[in-house]
Amino acid sequence: MAPHSILLFVVASTVTYFSLAASLVRILAIWWATKRLLRRLYWHPSRNAYENFRAAGILPGVGSESETRRAVGFDLWDTHSSWANIEFRRETSRRLLAAWEPGPGGQAQFDGLKTDVEAAQRWLRNAETNDAGEKPELAIEQRFHAQSVLSQIVRRVSLLAASIWQPDGTPLPRIRQDVLRKEAELMVANRVLDLIHHVFPQLMNLATTATVGLILMLLAISSYDFPNERFLLWYSWGSVFSAVIVLLYVFGAINRDRILSLLTGTTPGSLNFNAGFLLQVLIYGAVPILALLGVQFPGRMGQLFAWVSRIGASHPS
Fold it and tell me: How far apart are CA 10 and CA 182, in angstroms?
């Protein structure tokens, strides 16, 4: 290769590797921040709400979806459940208002909650109208406003239920304590699930970008005769192995997390080798390693794949 081509490749690969490393660091930072929050929530008195929330199967669903949720748990990587989560918090707030008996001591709290619920309903109605009228940009903006109001509602309800979770003598509103506690805990669990549905797809996108980018860089380095090619290959090996270790650590930690296990219906604190986790190990662990071996030992890997193909052909389904 010409010297200027080599220089261009070195600059481009340096920028690319730096960007991929930044993606891995961001994955770790996002997960560690989420993990700290989940750890604090687990030691809160409301921690049983996550399993109750899953077992109740009361998120809006159709047909067998609710039964599947009870048996299998929530999909933490779902990107299409924002409307369901928003509607659930709205309906929970309405149930609280229906069970509340306004009195002299809690009239201000009742009025504040009622005002927020009415505002959330208006924003949601407008968002649904614009979504149906093919105005998605307005629907997104109005749904954002509804989310903000509903977050304020969760805060109000949590403060009301705080005296039940940790009794401190604060007078409670005129509502049955079991109703307030149940609805508040379900609302908090739903808010946590909504947060996870916003955070985890970002982790998946970053993980996919880092994995595909490293494999492409490995193929690029192995396709041309560079000076110090052995050093570049060793560097690529180290980068791929580092990415695999980081991603498998994050996915394994997510799989073992106690609150996330309660939401998904798996065993808290232990690795659960379900289909989702095995697929993550395959895509973000096995595939990069096989790509490395294919670049380093193309002949042997070709023979291996040919042998596997012959076995598959001799055992048709």
Answer: 59
pTM: 0.81
Domain identity same for 110 and 182:
yes
- Enumerate residues 6+ apart whose C-beta is below 8 A from 123: 142, 143, 145, 146, 149
Type of residue found at 180? L
Domain count, the chain: 2
The domain of 166 spans 74-195
* Spatial separation of the C-alpha atoms in residues 105 and 74, rounded to whole Å: 39
Claim to verify: residue 179 and residue 235 sit in the same structural domain: no
Residue the block writes with tokens 């799989």: 255
Helix, strand or coil for residue 64? coil
The residue among 195, 222, 255 that closes a domain is 195
HSE value, Cβ hemisphere, 13 Å, CA-based, for 48: 5
Residue 280 shares a structural domain with residue 296: yes
> Encoding tokens for residue 210?
């880092």
Same domain, 271 and 168: no
Q: State pLDDT tens for residues 240-283.
A: 899 999 999 999 999 999 999 988 888 888 888 988 899 999 99
Question: Does one domain contain both 178 and 220?
Answer: no
Query: Is residue 179 domain-resident?
Result: yes
Quick one: tokens of 191? 């808010």
User: What is the DSSP secondary-structure string of 12-61?
Assistant: HHHHHHHHHHHHHHHHHHHHHHHHHHHHHHHTSTTTTHHHHHHHHT-SS-
Cα–Cα distances (Å) from 264 to 27, 133, 232, 272, 307, in that order, read: 21, 35, 42, 11, 38
